[in-house]
From TrEMBL:
Site (Discriminates between blocked and unblocked aminoacyl-tRNA): 12
Alphabetized InterPro entries for the sequence: Pept_tRNA_hydro, Pept_tRNA_hydro_CS, Pept_tRNA_hydro_sf
Location in or out of the cell: Cytoplasm
Species assigned in the record: Pelistega indica
Residues that, per the record, bind tRNA: 17, 68, 70, 116
GO cellular component, one term: cytoplasm
Catalytic activity of the protein: an N-acyl-L-alpha-aminoacyl-tRNA + H2O = an N-acyl-L-amino acid + a tRNA + H(+)
Keywords carried by this UniProt record: Cytoplasm, Hydrolase, RNA-binding, tRNA-binding
Recorded name of the encoding gene: pth
CDD domains in the record: PTH
Protein name: Peptidyl-tRNA hydrolase
Biological process, per Gene Ontology: protein quality control for misfolded or incompletely synthesized proteins; rescue of stalled ribosome
Site for Stabilizes the basic form of H active site to accept a proton, residues: 95
């Protein structure tokens, strides 16, 4: 696989969205920045907050788009074009309704499954062939809730779901470390074990 050079966390800007399910991509990219001692700076030309750290393979960029979710691709395209990063060198971290809290999966390419952030990134890049780490937040129907999906993702996770989400984020960090070393098999294995509810 090509080395990952850009890691994008998806979420909505603003304090009112910080703790919501739709922002778990932001949570994870914030944890990565802390792990690698990288600081986010406002980069208006890239429509977001950007941090950078070095590995043996070169510079790795972390991106938090400052647009709303459905315009996330604008920031991804701007940064990727400027630094000549290919679609296959991009990893997107996002919430996933089709996985339960505690489940997290690595995927390359595929559809957007109605996720507005992924939809816009695909449209802006002209390709779906980027990597994704899908962080399970559960679907309201599977959890026995009557909320509409749009409302559900814009609310914080239930208290009982948080330990499973925290566990999945921890495993995702291990997986990303493996991906940055180009070890896809280890990256996938790191995500496979999860807590039993």
């Amino acid at each position: 696989m090509e080395p990952i050079r850009l890691i994008v966390g998806l979420g909505n800007p603003g304090i009112e969205y910080e703790a919501t399910r739709h922002n778990v991509g932001f949570w994870l990219v914030d944890q990565l920045a802390e792990s690698y001692k990288a600081s986010f700076n406002v980069e208006p030309g890239f429509f977001g907050l950007v941090a950078k750290f070095k590995t043996l393979e070169g510079n790795i960029y972390l991106l938090k788009p400052s647009t709303y979710m459905n315009r996330s691709g604008q920031a991804v395209r701007a940064l990727a074009q400027f630094y000549k990063i290919t679609t296959e060198q991009i990893l997107v971290l996002h919430d996933e309704l089709d996985l339960m809290p505690g489940e997290v999966k690595l995927k390359k390419g595929g559809g957007h499954a109605g996720h507005n952030g992924l939809r816009d990134i695909q449209a802006q890049l002209g390709s779906p062939d980027f990597w994704r780490i899908r962080i399970g937040v559960g679907h309201p129907r599977k959890l026995g809730l009557s909320q509409q999906v749009a409302d559900y993702v814009l609310h914080p996770p239930r208290k009982e779901d948080m330990p499973f989400l925290e566990d999945s984020l921890m495993r995702a960090r291990v997986s990303i470390d493996a991906l940055l070393r180009g070890d896809k098999n280890l990256a996938s294995r790191a995500l496979s074990e999860h807590k039993d509810k």
